[in-house]
């Protein structure tokens, strides 16, 4: 059984159809990427899974359970963590408190502390800045914090929205090496990216979205060789 | 680094020194005036007592504003309710008017417990108000400004229900609510520093103490506990908070409870200082509280405290023959401060990021 199964999902913003009859599935341990142009519906897909936008129709099954009518906080409790577009760290709280809030749904204090140390090992720069307000971090550091914060809930599915957006190439490389690390650890990831080649190089499979409709899907290696994908997204 | 125009930098530095200098001179003059005035220190203590109440009352507005960016116009009615709840929890009887005339509870709590109980009941009313006047509109995606009207409607309803049930008469709390204590403390004349000895009503000291303890507990709750940190997260970014597993609706309820709690305690404290003057008890206070939060800086806890103390002290320096102009003084202080600092005393300039 797939970890996440989306069937026939449509989302409207006012009168505009952002997503039309999208179906996709992700198996346990996979890294799957969603690529496409600006406004193609990539972020909308993640936002629908997290339930911060409403689906007009369709089902979203997580571990076989339909989550498409739940509240956002209930989805997190089931094991889905979302690192949103634009990072959205809590700027007025410290790095440490941001991580603690990432573990908001957990009560196992000792393990939470251990997990924070784990994140600090993964992102040494966050450790250096643990008592700084998150708003004072650089863009790259905020992105690291957003990912670390999402991991603090010990998710079974991690949704990453545009982790490379607006970052320097060196930092982007660092972020993607972390994504590879998480993949190796067995974390299941749904990755939304504008940087299609980078995303496909780091994912098992990919879906291409065009104006809210799924057009091409396949193994990353196939998509990297696909003429249509190369022409439109790989340049 | 961007090159900065030399002269504008110099101008800024000059302005910095000038404004700090002016503030320091003003502070020294103010302190001298306080000590030198015929009953300056006495006024100061009185002002701090009422200012402390203003502060915790205004915190109720601040809590809700920081989360929903909206003013709860029913907060003045909550203040009134808190005062009444405390009165009845002490076991005192309803007056001769209203549907509940001459009724009383079969038990009476000692005053401190009645005050806490009154605050808790007022907090529960806060939760009720969120459920009937705020959440339904929020769920429908209505303009948040509409809740100004719905909360005002609830306030009117509460005031009228109070009048219907217990009448419009004045209620006074029992004498010596905290046991036998001297009515006033004589602090002496500080070795000739003041012309007359300073005498403070004991009740003023208690009121100031209770409000400051409330401020400290609330500050600890918000900055030191998991729920408090989640509350701050919702205040900053509700959508992202929900992505962390925070149930924002639940935290909004908690916020309304806390807001009602401090509002109810404030009502009780004012009732203690004067008396509970009928169903319209909280109306003036509601307006004053708005002045306090605007003065201190919207949505900021230290701002509400400083704003409350400043307005309380400013009012208490109004000579007794001009006491009718007390409100005018409070709003004049507000006016002058806003001319100089539109963001409030402790408010930050909000930089809109694009």
What would your notes on this structure say?
The complex is a heterodimer of chains A (about 240) and B (about 350). With about 240 residues, chain A is α/β, with parallel strands linked by helices. Chain A has one domain (about 5-235): P-loop containing nucleotide triphosphate hydrolases (Rossmann fold, 3-Layer(aba) Sandwich). Chain A has ten helices and ten strands. In chain A, the strands form two sheets. A six-stranded mixed beta sheet of chain A has the order 6-7-8-3-9-10, with helices on both faces. In chain A, strands 2-1-4-5 form a four-stranded antiparallel beta sheet, with helices on one face. In chain A, strand 1 and strand 2 (about 15-25) form a beta hairpin. In chain A, helix 3 (about 95-100) runs parallel beside helix 6 (about 140-150). The model of chain A has no long low-confidence stretch (mean pLDDT about 95). In chain B, strands 1-2 form a two-stranded antiparallel sheet. In chain B, helix 2 (about 40-70) runs antiparallel to helix 9. In chain B, about 40% of the residues are buried. Chain B is mostly helical and about 350 residues long. Chain B has helices spanning about 5-35, 40-70, 75-90, 110-140, 145-165, 200-225, 225-235, 240-245, 250-275, 285-295, 300-315, 325-340; strands spanning about 185-190, 200. The model of chain B has no long low-confidence stretch (mean pLDDT about 90). In chain B, about 65% of the residues lie in helices and about 5% in strands. Classes of the chains: A alpha/beta (about 240), B mainly alpha (about 350). The interface of A and B includes residues 52, 73, 101 and 105 of A.
